[in-house]
Request: fold
Amino acid sequence: MKTKDKPLVWLHGEIKTPPMSSLARIESGYLLRRLQTGEKLSLPHSRPMSLIGARCHELRIEDENKTWRIVYRIDSDAIVILDVFDKKTQKTPKKVIENCKRRILMYGY
Reply:
């Protein structure tokens, strides 16, 4: 990691095989690494999640039989991981949104 790269701060969730397939885990790592170097991602890889808060986004990882989501926030000094979950419906579950908001408050920004 270069000194200008932002660290990942994990507030909740993890990326591991299983439950993710090896390919989904590798794609997750690749996309997170791009974020660390300051690259801005957009659809189809990432979309804004303003419902959760400012600078919040959701990575989309297609897996063999499910779709993974990584909710993150871009801070000036870090990429903050708020949640990792498999998404079963079009809408983000209300509980995930509430938990992410709570984690942001607890984090202190």
User: Anything to note?
Assistant: The two ends are 24 Å apart (CA to CA). Residues 8-107 form a domain with the YaeB-like fold fold (CATH 3.30.2310). The longest helix spans residues 22-36. The CA atoms of residues 82 and 103 lie 7 Å apart.
